[in-house]
Design goal:
Elements lengths: L1 E8 L4 H12 L4 E7 L4 E6 L6 H10 L3 E2 L1
Antiparallel strand pairs: 1-3, 1-4, 2-3
The chain binds copper (II) ion (CU).
Length: about 70
């Protein structure tokens, strides 16, 4: 299990937080996703054998946010 921090633009409220966290946690291999609204970041714990960073970017972008 490894951790990464994604920089995400456009998350402003609890709804954004829940959308992004929920979408990431639906990916097989992601064990934890936690949004920090003040910093505009998402901490993700995942299995690098199962999940690619690019997949996480796509999933966040599908929710309507930009990954930096
Ligand atoms: Cu929001």
């Amino acid at each position: 299990m490894v951790q990464t921090t994604l920089k995400v633009q456009g998350m402003t409220c609890g709804h954004c937080k829940a959308s992004v966290e929920g979408a990431l946690q639906e990916i097989a291999g992601v064990s934890k996703a936690e949004v920090n609204l003040e910093e505009g970041t998402v901490n993700v714990s995942y299995d690098e054998a199962e999940v690619k960073i690019e997949t996480m970017h796509e999933v966040v972008e599908e929710q309507g946010y930009d990954v930096l």
